[in-house]
Amino acid sequence: MVSLTISPASKGSLLKSPLTIDVSADATVLEVKEQIAVKYPKFGVSRQKLSLKGDKKALKDEEKVDSLSGRDLQVKDLGPQMSWRTVFMIEYVGPLIIHPIFYFFPKLIYGKDVEHSALQNYVFAFVMLHFLKRELETVFVHRFSHGTMPFLFVFRNSAYYHICYGLLFAIDIYRPKYSATSPYIVGTYRDNEMVLWIATGFWLYAQVSNFRTHITLRNLRPPGTRVRGLPRGYGFNLVSCPNYFFEIVAWTVLVVLTQSIASYFFIILAIVTLSGWALKRHNNYKKEFGKEYPRHRRALFPFVF
């Protein structure tokens, strides 16, 4: 048996005083968390961050506790949690609700009816299909390395999609300026059927490519584990995060088509945000796989960054 002393990492934790737990030598950190949850039912496993005392790095759930014998541990209360899958579904449903309101009921928003141009019809289809694809991938494709995230984060994450891709873009693109009779549309490339079909081709290419990279990432992670293999193949031969790259390509199509203020805003925001995520994952890959990781790969943009 191994005896572990666990102290609260901060004031206000559901664990009020040091706790001693006896577990078998082959027990895992997850089993220790489960025992804490038995003694403190409100302190569920997902709320606990277990680490060595004085160390901020969390112990992995699958780590054996035999090496921790005689060492003091601390547990941090992460607060109420929500599953990543649920958070993603809430994030992506926003644009699916907001865009139809502006598209089908323009008189309520702009005070007048809007005869939709072909451009507005295409953009509406692109947005709806994009976020419907994301919802389906969340349910049937994605495997998450972390089961939960802090509940309050759902508001921050949702605001990014609901406001930027939902409200701001919908207000801008479905207004009379982009209607079928607007001078901004009539006689321009935005009203050219061939241009719209070419744009659709690029958009479909980006969406299918994004989906393929998600399938590759799914297959790298066995069900029910946090194990991650080295990604190879389509897209990954050039960058560490081709899913982000193809995401940017898809939204760039809408920027080129509409030239709207909102589209410029969210493409800049998307590039900045995804660049940070991509660089972090790129560095984690290099640290995890060392010399095995291809040196020529960039983080997000082929041959550049």
TrEMBL record:
GO biological process: very long-chain fatty acid biosynthetic process
Gene3D superfamilies: Phosphatidylinositol 3-kinase Catalytic Subunit, Chain A, domain 1
InterPro entries: 3-oxo-5_a-steroid_4-DH_C (IPR001104), SRD5A/TECR (IPR039357), TECR-like_N (IPR049127), Ubiquitin-like_dom (IPR000626), Ubiquitin-like_domsf (IPR029071)
Keyword terms: Endoplasmic reticulum, Fatty acid biosynthesis, Fatty acid metabolism, Lipid biosynthesis, Lipid metabolism, Membrane, NADP, Oxidoreductase, Transmembrane, Transmembrane helix
EC category name: oxidoreductase
Record GO cellular component, one term: endoplasmic reticulum membrane
Ranges of residues in domain Ubiquitin-like: 2-69
TM region(s), chain numbering: 86-105, 153-174, 194-213, 234-255, 261-279
UniProt-annotated location(s): Endoplasmic reticulum membrane
CDD domains in the cross-refs: Ubl_TECR_like (cd01801)
Record has Phosphoprotein as a keyword: no
Family: Belongs to the steroid 5-alpha reductase family.
The protein, known as: very-long-chain enoyl-CoA reductase
Species annotation: Coprinopsis marcescibilis
